[in-house]
Fold these 2 entries.
Entry 1:
Amino acid sequence: MQRLLTVLLLLAVIVGAGAFFGAPYFGFFALRSAAQSQDVQGLDKLVDYDAVRASLKAQLTGTNAAPPSFWEDPVGAIKNAISPLEPTPRVEALIKPASLYALTEGQGWDALKAKTPDPNTQAHATDGPWPQVQYWGVNRARFGVASAKPGWDQTIFTFERQGLFRWRLVQIRMPARVSPAATPATAPAH
């Protein structure tokens, strides 16, 4: 009887650890599935829109510096206080469900022109490219999705832990063009 309890306890620990370490993957695939099916309420639980908007806006405008203080630049501080209220068209286009789905499929900047997926031809969320772990920590995980177009880097998705098994998307790093010297040369065929 004690052996059975030990085996059951060990099995529960293994399943719990697997779920704990696999939760970021489940978060990524839940994001892809919700975006594919245009589930806005589901996406609201999976995406921290304010953080994602800020990360995309910084990439599109090239401003990663801290905002000016009121004492150093009063006009700049007031302008900065008002600017978050102004939606940036390209940022808003990238956080639409169709665009989020295209990003998880490795479409990169082409996600700006993404159309709503046809509900009759929808595939399973795991049918697209699998994310590659770039970083995994206890409270943060970063996945890279390879670009569907040659010559482009990965799209990076950063998830943050919101509970024991719940993860939310907090940042998207858009792909950059890869220099030809950085791409590995293919070996000649023999």
Entry 2:
Amino acid sequence: MEPPERKNEILHRIERLQGLLREQDIDGALLTERIDRVYFTATDQDAHLYVPAGGRPLLMVRKSMDRAVQDAAIDDVVPLRSFSEILRLIQRHSGYLPRRMGLELDVLPMRFYRTYEKHFPDVELLDIWPLIRQVRMIKSSYEVDCLKRGAHMADEMYARVPQFLDTAETENDLAAQVEYFYRSHGHPGLVPARGFNQIPLYGHIMAGANAALPSNSSGATGGKGLGPFLSQGAGKGKLRRNDPILIDYVGNVGGYNADQTRIFVMGKLDPELLTAHEVMREIQDTIAHHGRPGTVTGDLYERALSIAQRAGLHQTFMGFPDPVPFVGHGVGLELNEWPVIGRGLKTTLEEGMALAIEPKVVFPGKGVVGIENTFVVTSSGMERLNRFPDDIVNC
């Protein structure tokens, strides 16, 4: 974005958050998490961002002040030497002390929280992460454009995979080539995910039986990984003929993550797996067809599950032996944003939401098949951003 457009974008995001703060009778929000600071200021410098329920936000910078002044899309940027200064700076900026103040309690370290308790003894501290997620799950035209370019980056990478497989002998060899392609095309090398102990991996590359191994991954697939220190994703397993090779790697442009999965095979895939892959495509297409504004995400999940049940795949649908209760998730600056297409969830789809739909099915001892593409909810339905074909690619 050019500077004026960038500033307008950021101010619009802040105004949306301020409206939600006023609805909840919260005087302001103090944001410290890096991605939230990027979203609301356009800079990732070490800082505290105070967003009052009304008026101008204040960025209090620990390091680097010079970079923050250069990059931030808000006007009020001041140095912060210690946490004990925060309340004084807020009062001087806003003209009053907050009675009720929101914090990102989903990720805030307890040490920080105890420090705030000490320095803000008369302030009621509340969790405003649900409000932040509510703001962030509706994408602007700028954000959708970033997602489209990220999807295009992924499309270009997937088109090169047959060439990569000519020389790759192991999962890790293939991962190295895929990651080199991404980095050489501007990928930042990180795919942030919200939550404690989330690993910012590019994604998963795994082949054959390794793909069907259980792991600590929060998604449907795991992989063997490189050892007990990282027991998911690509490992040293050989790429063998006739095994399904799953590549679930995220394109990223401007910090925005477009998720995509494809299956490749050197030779011929087991007919049972081919049939199952077509069922996963049917699930994806069904969700995309019914995913219109006003649709409840939990209802879309039940449609997906009913198709898997009808095909006799429900026992290993979305993981085995520990299936995950979702088939789609929001994407944006983080990989696991709202909304989620999952069991029992009541979120209503709205225009501007961006989601990755990822139906997958596990065959223990054989591998995993499935599909994933990134979509944006429009007034007329879901627009698919990825263009690479959904077919299994024979190499």
